[in-house]
Specification:
Distance between the termini: 70 Å
Radius of gyration: 20 Å
Structural class: mainly alpha
Number of helices: 9
Strand content: under 5%
Largest sheet: none
Number of strands: 0
Shape: globular
Order of helices and strands: HHHHHHHHH
Helix content: 55-70%
Oligomer: single chain
Length: 225
């Protein structure tokens, strides 16, 4: 699955899990969790893509440690991370016990494929709907300092895409709209990146805004007799 689907499914899974655990995970962490297993791209060719970072032998202990250290928030974030394995196993296969075994599991529906496009674009649409239901939309519409953290998943999506294309000699401008399935996924990426850029801009606005000094509470209180 592409980064569009991983980030959006991670957000949906983490937010749903957080609701069950009665913890509110920040939007940027919800999006970021599902991207983490693809961080192996940053270390290519030292680490081959889609190997150890897609194995339960690594992600199992990592998510267990996060849950132990950060309790309910860690468990919720871990759900987003593990959603990566689930979505990859739907459209392709994953080396579930790498490096002890090279056996892979998955449905292999295809990437890109109509099924993959439906899963990715559908997740984007569901995520857009969810941000309006849970109030996260204010991070994109109002100047708030916490919005600046949206720059983290934004930077990850952009850099991972460029690095993966460069490492594999993929001409993005040619490939992006070369097939119907890719056209829908490409459009989804453009929408997601645009929205995340808008959120990052709102965060920057909040930090750059000059807030007038507030009068001390005692100076405006009426004299007590």
């Amino acid at each position: 699955m592409f980064l569009l689907g991983h980030s959006c499914w991670s957000y949906l899974v983490a937010k749903s899990g957080g609701r069950g655990l009665h913890v509110r995970i920040p939007l940027y962490l919800g999006l970021l969790g599902g991207l983490l297993p693809d961080f192996d791209i940053y270390f290519h060719p030292i680490i081959q893509h889609h190997t150890i970072t897609h194995s339960l032998l690594l992600l199992g202990p990592v998510t267990a440690l996060l849950t132990y250290r950060y309790k309910r928030l860690g468990a919720t974030f871990s759900m987003g991370i593990l959603s990566h394995l689930l979505t990859d196993s739907l459209v392709g296969t994953i080396p579930i016990f790498y490096p002890l075994s090279t056996v892979t599991i998955g449905l292999g529906l295809g990437i890109p494929s109509p099924a993959d496009t439906l899963l990715e674009v559908g997740a984007l649409a569901a995520s857009i709907g969810l941000v309006f239901l849970n109030g996260d939309y204010v991070l994109f519409t109002k100047a708030r300092k916490e919005s600046v953290r949206i720059a983290i998943p934004l930077a990850a999506i952009v850099t991972l895409t460029l690095l993966f294309a460069g490492d594999n000699n993929i001409p993005l401008t040619v490939l992006a709209f070369s097939r119907k399935a890719l056209t829908g996924i490409t459009a989804g990426h453009i929408i997601l990146i645009t929205v995340l850029a808008a959120g990052t801009f709102q965060g920057a606005r909040a930090y750059l805004a000059k807030t007038p000094p507030q009068p001390h509470a005692d100076s405006t209180a009426p004299d007590s007799q």
